[in-house]
Design goal:
By secondary structure, this protein is of the alpha+beta class. Helices cover 50% and strands 14% of the residues. Strands 2-1-5-3-4 form a five-stranded mixed sheet, with no helix packed on it.
Length: 177
């Protein structure tokens, strides 16, 4: 006799054995299929919980095309969900440190040269644009609220790049005054 077992979003077509088969045999088959321990779910048919595992399945008035709901009970172990994995703090710290290292290696020397002779308009525009891009990249790195170290690193990196941009603009403004 075919029945349908509804389990979460799945519908399982299930061929029931003879009517004198105990409910425990059905529960064991479903436990094997779902990998949920037998004691960790309830079976419900026509609004009634199928409690007595020793009772024959005929006692539950199942008929062809009946629907049985398989429902996890409160004491069931948590079922794995499709949630995204938690991010780790270290890769975020690495991103912040890599961005700051890139700024220090490429833009800091160019800024030092510009500050020594702040007369090149194109160099002022180029450095300003590159420093702003670095700030935007740092701003796009979003540490989790609980990651104090990463949040502090990002704040310090933003402060350092912003200071470089301020020095660039101050030198340019002082040159035109």
């Amino acid at each position: 006799m075919p029945v349908t077992v509804k389990w979460a979003r799945e519908r399982i077509s299930f061929e029931l054995p003879s009517p004198d088969t105990p409910l425990s045999a059905i529960r064991a088959s479903l436990a094997d299929y779902t990998h949920i321990p037998q004691h960790a779910f309830k079976l419900v048919h026509a609004g009634a919980v199928m409690k007595d595992d020793a009772a024959p399945i005929s006692a539950y008035h199942l008929h062809p095309n009946s629907v049985i709901a398989l429902i996890g009970s409160a004491d069931a172990p948590p079922v794995a969900t499709a949630l995204p994995p938690l991010r780790a703090e270290q890769p975020v710290l690495n991103s912040i440190q890599a961005e700051l290292a890139q700024v220090r290696a490429t833009l800091a020397p160019a800024l030092a040269l510009f500050l020594a002779d702040p007369t090149h308009h194109k160099e002022h525009l180029r450095l300003g644009e590159l420093l702003l891009q670095a700030l935007i990249r740092l701003d796009s790195i979003a540490p989790e609220p609980a990651w104090e170290h990463a949040r502090r690193e990002r704040k310090d990196a933003v402060r350092e790049v912003q200071d470089m941009l301020d020095r660039l603009d101050d030198a340019w403004a002082a040159r035109t005054v």
